[in-house]
C-alpha cells in the first residue's frame, strides 16, 4: 500500500515561492501594458521575490488554518492584505539597507517611503482571495507518495494530478 503524505513545509514554501515569482512577472507585464501600452509585455522581478513570496504565503497559510471557520472570507482577505503590506514594507526596508530593494513606489501618489503604495490595495486584496481559495487550499491537498516509482501508476492509493485518488 502506498504511503501518501502531505507535502513538507519546505515543499509548500517552494511551490508558493514559484507561484509568487510567476505572478509578479505576469503582474508587472500586465501593468506595463496598461500604463504604457507596451506590447512586449516585459515582466520583471528579482530573485529576492522567491524568498519574499514563499515565506509570506507560508505565513498566510498558517493564518488561513487558524482563521477559517472563525471569521468570514472577506475579513480573512483583509487580514492577508494588511499582512502583505507589513511584509512588503519590512522586507523592502531591510533590502534597502543593502541597496537591494527591487521596487520603488515613490512615483505613486499614495506611497509610504517608496516601499508600499495604496494604489495596489485592490490587486493585493484580489491576490489574497485567489491565494486562499485556490493556491493554499489546493497546495494543502497535495500528497507525496515516497514509495511510488516515477512514471508508473501507483497501487490502491494511486495519485491523480497530485491529489490522492479516492474512487
From TrEMBL:
Q: What is this protein called?
A: Transmembrane protein 229B isoform b
Q: How does it sit in the membrane?
A: Multi-pass membrane protein
Q: Which PANTHER family match?
A: TRANSMEMBRANE PROTEIN 229 FAMILY MEMBER, TRANSMEMBRANE PROTEIN 229B
**What family classification does the UniProt entry report for this protein?**
Belongs to the TMEM229 family.
Question: So which domain of life are we looking at?
Answer: Eukaryota
| Cellular component, GO, one term | membrane
Q: What is its main location?
A: membrane
Compartments, record wording: Membrane
Q: Which residues cross the membrane?
A: 13-34, 46-65, 77-95, 115-136
Asked if the Swiss-Prot or TrEMBL record annotates the protein with the keyword Signal, the reply is: no
Pfam family name, one: ABC_trans_CmpB
Q: Is Metal-binding among this UniProt entry's keywords?
A: no
Q: Which UniProt keywords apply?
A: Membrane, Transmembrane, Transmembrane helix
Amino acid at each position: 500500500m502506498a504511503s501518501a503524505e502531505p507535502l513538507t513545509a519546505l515543499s509548500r514554501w517552494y511551490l508558493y515561492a514559484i507561484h509568487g515569482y510567476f505572478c509578479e512577472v505576469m503582474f508587472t507585464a500586465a501593468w506595463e501594458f496598461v500604463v504604457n501600452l507596451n506590447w512586449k509585455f516585459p515582466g520583471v522581478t528579482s530573485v529576492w521575490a522567491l524568498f519574499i513570496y514563499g515565506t509570506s504565503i507560508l505565513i498566510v497559510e498558517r493564518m488561513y488554518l487558524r482563521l477559517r471557520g472563525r471569521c468570514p472570507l472577506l475579513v480573512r482577505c483583509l487580514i492577508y492584505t494588511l499582512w502583505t503590506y507589513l511584509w512588503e514594507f519590512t522586507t523592502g526596508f531591510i533590502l534597502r539597507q543593502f541597496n537591494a530593494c527591487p521596487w520603488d513606489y515613490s512615483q505613486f501618489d499614495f506611497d509610504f517611503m517608496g516601499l508600499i503604495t495604496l494604489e495596489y490595495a485592490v490587486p493585493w486584496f484580489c491576490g489574497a482571495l485567489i491565494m486562499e481559495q485556490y493556491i493554499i487550499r489546493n497546495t494543502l491537498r497535495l500528497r507525496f507518495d515516497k514509495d511510488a516509482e516515477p512514471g508508473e501508476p501507483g497501487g490502491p492509493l494511486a495519485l491523480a494530478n497530485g491529489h490522492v485518488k479516492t474512487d
